[in-house]
């Protein structure tokens, strides 16, 4: 009796385990009929255990073998090792006709004597496993695709990196090189492999490289190194954009000065913060521009027009002498530049160049400014002060707007020019100086002399050699050259690339009468450079006073004052219909001349040149 109790308890214990293992279990008698099924088997087959007992196993658990494309007729022959693998392609068809993906096997159970006792079938629902497997396959496919794309992008970036028409070098926050493209290899005469893990100062040929004076790798550079400063600013969030500079490189043991453009950007390739320096060698371009301008410049003046070439020649001839020169011309034409060119190209270039605006001060202050004053000469004169003539001793004094001098000041200036001597205001000592006098005026001094407003003897003292600076409207062909020169100076001041002038903008500049001459042109370009946020100056960036219109618009066209229907007809008649020569005769550009013709419906001339 005790043994029977133990057996019952063991059977309950076994059934409890089988109901909770998560695997469907069927036991069959030797004839293939169901003798036991657990709860999981009930769920998968849709049969209750009491109803299934005694039924043929294939009736309770119908298994469709997708690989064999048939239903398994006798579960005792069901073998699908290895067991518990996902995705065998077998489907259990439930009592209600539903389908569940399964995998399992059926094995014989024998007693101790080796006689067949029963069969045990174990199977499980692998639907979630298959879904997970499909998701995994999709994820792997997506990762493979992304990896392929990344490899393609990497190859593209590497190709771009190697073929960029400027130098690129990647450095860390210590200035150590991590990558360098072939452009810089050629420019610096070193390979990327040799440059790897070196301080950028060593790669760029810094004379302090490898010493504690070099900031690269030491945290602080005592020298004004634009490379190291730009790297530090980049890591602090600031950006360098096309910084124009000259830098001394030691290339293959030879020191070379190159003019370069430097830009920076930061990034985190492979998780490490790096600064990318973009280096453009603009030495050749800069040199070519200098060569092209050499025959069209003198000092800080530029011009190819015949009048400017004659002016340059006159300066060369007069600079070596010590005679007084009167520079005449309208306001803004650059008279002070002519005076400076005379000084810099003459024997007094080692002395001072002192400029005085004679029209900016009243007589009392102007006299003190020119001749100085003695201690106690007036309230506040606590010590002697030298005047401009005394400061210019051995050099050059430039008297701008000399036509504005009063009669009294004209007399005092005449004495200095005659004897080279003067007294300070309130002083008794006669001071002698050796000064070359250059003067300038926008007045018609011969007319001022004729009408008694300017002393004739002073005029002849000042005007030993007269020089006339032509107005800008009289040399319109120089406008593109002057504009390029001004934009180059603006770019150098603001450390950026030289901006380009769009053809439409240049046409506007060529058409403007320029009453303020070169000074007005410089102001206009300063304004346009600020308004333009790119590298091209468009008509919209010009001040409203230079507002341009489309060449095809006839209404409201702005006409230069010298153009009229009669003047144009007369010019065409004199030049026998040659429009280019007619435009030159009238002092306007061909584009302006053509636009004017369109407004008066002038018949087209027969020739252009």
Outline of the structure:
With 609 residues, the chain is an alpha+beta fold. The protein contains 23 helices and 25 strands. The protein has 5 domains: 12-125, PAS domain (Beta-Lactamase), CATH 3.30.450; 164-287, PAS domain (Beta-Lactamase); 295-468, 3-Layer(aba) Sandwich (Rossmann fold); 472-546, Helicase, Ruva Protein, domain 3, CATH 1.10.8; 549-609, no CATH class.
Keywords:
Rossmann fold, alpha+beta, Beta-Lactamase, 25 strands
Describe the overall structure.
By secondary structure, this protein is α+β, with helices and mostly antiparallel strands. The chain has five domains: 12-125, Beta-Lactamase (2-Layer Sandwich); 164-287, Beta-Lactamase, CATH 3.30.450.20; 295-468, Rossmann fold; 472-546, Helicase, Ruva Protein, domain 3 (Orthogonal Bundle), CATH 1.10.8; 549-609, no CATH class. Helix content is 39%, strand content 20%. The protein contains 23 helices and 25 strands. The strands form seven sheets. The protein has a seven-stranded antiparallel sheet. Strand 3 and strand 4 (70-71) form a beta hairpin. The protein is elongated and about 150 Å long. The N and C termini lie far apart (135 Å). Mean pLDDT is 80; it is low at 549-561 and 601-609.
Largest sheet: 7 strands, antiparallel
The neighbouring-strand order within the major sheet is 2-1-7-6-5-3-4
Output the CATH class name of the largest domain. Answer: Alpha Beta
* Gross morphology: elongated
Distance from N terminus to C terminus (CA atoms, Å) equals: 135 Å
- By secondary-structure content and strand pairing, the structural class works out as alpha+beta
Number of helices: 23
Strand content: 15-25%
Mean pLDDT: 80
Number of domains: 5
Oligomer: single chain
User: CATH-wise, what's the superfamily of the largest domain?
Assistant: P-loop containing nucleotide triphosphate hydrolases
Ranges where pLDDT stays below 50 over 5 or more residues in a row are: 549-561, 601-609
Query: Any idea of the CATH topology of the largest domain?
Result: Rossmann fold
């Amino acid at each position: 009796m005790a043994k029977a109790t133990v057996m019952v308890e063991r059977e309950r214990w076994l059934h409890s385990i089988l109901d909770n293992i998560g695997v469907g279990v069927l036991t069959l008698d030797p004839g293939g009929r169901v003798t036991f099924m657990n709860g999981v088997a009930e769920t998968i087959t849709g049969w209750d255990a009491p109803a299934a007992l005694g039924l043929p196993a294939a009736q309770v658990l119908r298994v469709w073998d997708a690989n064999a494309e048939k239903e398994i007729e006798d579960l005792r022959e069901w073998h699908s090792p290895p067991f518990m693998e996902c995705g065998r392609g077998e489907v259990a068809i439930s009592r209600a006709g539903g389908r569940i993906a399964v995998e399992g096997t059926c094995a014989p159970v024998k007693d101790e004597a080796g006689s067949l006792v029963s069969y045990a079938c174990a199977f499980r629902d692998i639907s979630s496993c298959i879904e997970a497997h499909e998701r995994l396959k999709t994820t792997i496919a997506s990762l493979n695709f992304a990896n392929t794309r990344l490899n393609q992008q990497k190859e593209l970036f590497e190709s771009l990196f190697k073929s960029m028409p400027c130098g690129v070098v990647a450095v860390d926050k210590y200035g150590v090189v991590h990558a360098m493209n072939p452009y810089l290899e050629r420019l610096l005469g070193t390979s990327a492999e040799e440059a790897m893990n070196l301080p950028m100062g060593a790669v760029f040929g810094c004379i302090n490289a490898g010493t504690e004076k070099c900031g690269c790798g030491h945290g602080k550079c005592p020298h004004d190194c634009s490379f190291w400063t730009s790297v530090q600013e980049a890591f602090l969030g600031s950006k360098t954009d096309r910084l124009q500079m000259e830098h001394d490189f030691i290339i293959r043991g030879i020191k070379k000065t190159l003019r370069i453009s430097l830009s920076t950007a930061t990034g985190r390739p492979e998780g490490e913060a790096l600064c990318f320096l973009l280096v453009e060698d603009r030495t050749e371009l800069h040199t070519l521009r200098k060569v092209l301008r050499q025959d069209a410049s003198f000092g800080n003046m530029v011009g190819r027009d015949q009048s400017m070439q004659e002016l340059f020649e006159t300066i060369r001839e007069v600079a070596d002498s010590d005679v007084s020169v009167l520079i005449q011309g309208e306001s803004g034409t650059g008279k002070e530049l002519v005076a400076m060119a005379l000084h810099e190209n003459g024997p007094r270039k080692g002395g001072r160049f002192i400029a005085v605006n004679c029209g900016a001060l009243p007589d009392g202050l102007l006299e003190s400014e020119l001749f100085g004053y003695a201690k106690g000469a007036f309230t506040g004169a606590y010590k002697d002060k030298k005047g401009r003539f005394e400061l210019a001793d051995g050099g050059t004094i430039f008297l701008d707007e000399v036509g504005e001098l009063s009669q009294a000041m004209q007399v005092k200036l005449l004495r200095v020019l005659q004897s080279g001597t003067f007294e300070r205001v309130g002083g008794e000592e006669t001071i002698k100086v050796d000064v070359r006098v250059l003067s300038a005026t926008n007045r018609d001094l011969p007319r001022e002399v004729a009408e008694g407003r300017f002393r004739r003897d002073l005029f002849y003292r000042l005007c030993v050699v007269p020089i006339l600076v032509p107005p800008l409207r009289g040399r319109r062909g120089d406008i593109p050259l002057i504009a390029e020169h001004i934009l180059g100076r603006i770019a150098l001041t603001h450390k950026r690339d030289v901006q380009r002038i769009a053809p439409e903008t240049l046409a506007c500049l060529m058409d403007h009468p320029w009453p303020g001459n070169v000074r007005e042109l410089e102001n206009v370009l300063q304004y346009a450079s600020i308004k333009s946020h790119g590298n091209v100056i468009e008509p919209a960036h010009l001040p409203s006073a230079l507002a341009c219109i489309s060449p095809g618009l006839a209404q409201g066209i702005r006409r230069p004052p010298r153009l009229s229907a009669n003047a144009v007809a007369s010019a065409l008649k004199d030049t026998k219909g040659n429009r280019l020569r007619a435009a030159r005769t009238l002092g306007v550009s061909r584009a302006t001349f053509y636009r004017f013709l369109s407004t008066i419906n002038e018949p087209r001339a027969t020739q252009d040149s």
